[in-house]
Amino acid sequence: MRNVKGFGLLLILVLSIGSLSANIAAANEFNAEKYPVTLTGSKDGTFQDVLTTTAGTGKCTTPTYAGTASASSTAVALIPTYTGCTYAGFPATATTTGCFFIFNIGAGATTDGDADFECVGGAEFTLTAVSGGVDKCTFHMKSQTDIGGTVKYINIGSGATREITIEANLSGIDYTHTAGTGIGSCTSGSSTTGTWVFKTVVTAESGSHVGYFLTSS
């Protein structure tokens, strides 16, 4: 993601997380050994993230996520960046400016939850397939809070090396795709049945690496 209007977006993330946490009476919480922290999500080993749509599949070799936290909470917001992508069988460029995931922990003593996708100022996530300088198909995803599927949170490591794996298996994603031109291009369309499977390992930094983990509240 390009660092456009970064301060404003991070402020919205903080306000969103505060509101969501206040609405959950009892749950596990995301915690760090000290605050404030910078959060970084990176690919979980060789796991292949896959976005599935009616126009084809999207894959990115280097998905990363970024965020901040100033206190423990029952939700965490992460801004995605995707490089090394393909979509519908062609090389693709991902644009995530103004968009972020909110990962929520379910009520009660659970390590499962769900995810929302938020975009500010009318922004959207796009994944544009291009071949020979010609657009072949563009995927569009806007804000939505009705995403189905599951998200699992797993503590890994110990002490200051503790990290959290976020394992998402999302379904019921609303999206549109716009037609490209030439051989292999897609037609325009829309659906509410998109799926997205991905994993990321989230670490925390506060001058140096600090433990980031789930605890029961």
Unreliable runs, pLDDT <50, ≥5 residues? 1-8, 14-26
How many domains is the backbone divided into? 1
- Radius of gyration over C-alpha positions, nearest whole angstrom: 17 Å
Largest sheet: 13 strands, antiparallel
Strand content: over 45%
Could you tell me how far the N terminus lies from the C terminus, measured between alpha carbons in angstroms? 33 Å
Overall, the morphology is: elongated
Proportion of residues in helical segments: under 10%
Secondary structure tally, helices: 1
Instruction: Report the average pLDDT across residues.
Output: 89
* SS elements, strand count: 15
Can you describe this structure?
The structure is a single chain. The protein is mostly beta strands and 217 residues long. The protein has one domain (6-216). It is built from one helix and 15 strands; from the N terminus they run αβββββββββββββββ. Strands 2, 3, 4, 5, 6, 7, 8, 9, 10, 11, 12, 13 and 14 form a 13-stranded antiparallel β-sheet that branches. It has a two-stranded antiparallel ribbon with strand order 1-15. Strand 4 and strand 5 (75-87) form a beta hairpin. Residues 1-8 and 14-26 have low confidence and may be disordered.
Brief digest:
By secondary structure, the protein is mainly beta. It has one helix spanning 6-22, and strands spanning 28-32, 37-43, 50-53, 56-69, 75-87, 90-95, 99-105, 112-119, 125-131, 134-141, 148-156, 163-179, 189-205, 209-210, 212-216.
